[in-house]
Hints:
With 496 residues, the protein is an alpha+beta fold. The chain is 17% helix and 44% strand.
Amino acid sequence: MKKLIILAICSLCxxxxxxxxxxxxxxxxxxxxxxxTVAIAEEPQDTTPKPMFLYxxxxxxxxxxxxxxxxxxxxxxxxxxxxDGMHTSWSxxxxxxxxxxxxxxxxxxENKMVDIKFIGEQxxxxxxxEMYPGELHSRASIPSPGLRYAFVNPKDQQxxxxxxxxxxxDDYLQTRKLMTQKLLSPFDKSNPLPATVIKxxxxxxxxxxxxxxxxxxxxxxxxxxxxxxxxxxxxxxxxNEERQKALALEVLTDGDKVYSYPVEGYIYDGMPTWNxxxxxxxxxSSFPAAFEGPNGPELCFIxxxxxxxxxxxxxxxxxxxxxxxxxxxxxxxxxQTPLWKKDIALLQKLFVADDSQENKDFTLSKYxxxxxxxxxxxxxxxxxxxxxxxxxxTRYNGEFKLIATENGRLHPTILRSRDGVGxxxxxxxxxxxxxxxxxxxxxxxxxxxxxxxxxxxxxxxECSFDGKPMDKEAGKRYMASLPExxxxxxxxxxxx
Length: 496
């Protein structure tokens, strides 16, 4: 349900799976989003390629993430209402694809440009499947369709990079100048817009201000902020029911001149909302770059929300503040790193190699993720369909390593983590009155210690720590000091 709300609020375009074409050359309702995108086509012709947003998770994941199908949309009865907006959105993306090699400058920090280069287009995942556009993934191990870039100078890698960086062409920099930025409302203090600005906007829209915020200032001339009005802006009929709307403004001042762009939201249970989990307050945009253009300021904006990210441009046109929305991305959270076919084949090979006689007739056919040491990288538990034979693996810097295997005699137990260390215990019958136990300690997705013990009639007969013999009494104390069992739910993802 939450994802549907995100889609409604952000007005995501209808998107189909990407098609494998080659690159040529080297928050409001749907009607509001349509107006934003159609405005792009109506602006005066400027052939200078617009700034592009590069999603950067690390030096190997710098990408302009696609938001729509790379095939040109075709009009039919099902998409007639939204076709103009869909086509304009596609045209914007196609322009970036067509000019991909021209984007050679990335802004890092406040005013430093570094050289980058286009290295190719990515359309399929490691399994050879086409990928869904319009999503920002939280992990570099999860690919997205789009244009891929790299630093020209390796020394520039990961210096002062943000999650969204602005990249431009040489032509753009010849006709625009980067503006300086001063933050007016730090995180611990919110400064309202000037009273004269608030009064003017109240008179213009016929509503009373609930809250406002002066966010930042450019070239000691332009001030950007937001204003949120009290109460109901208007009531509309949607889906055979009446719905109340709220109103907020994106505001830009230039001396005595005040410009605003209205953003409609909805009122749910008496509280206004523009984005999921915004707690009744309109969230201001942030600006990774701002330029002084031939016709006035051009502000590259990012509107982050808990589960969405809208990117685009604010600029002046015909004496009005206009907003060009490139895309309202769905910002993915709590994602698990996929197991690709090549990964599964490797894990099966490691499983069999650990004990070829025991494991050669069993296939790892299902898996689940574990957080044994509670870091950001999951451990992986795979099993055969018999629910007896299986294996545990770590994944560190993309490399898989076997922790331990299980079978019908040796059974796993996950213990609670302690001080950043996780514990996996494998134990079971070694024949007759004998019990064999292995304990693996994990930290930062790596095995840091291994303990083994052979017990006969409940007494330790021999034990070791990291492969070296250990005193029996020390082994007894070690086993007694282990954390309690972590009672985890058992569920599986089937491997197709």
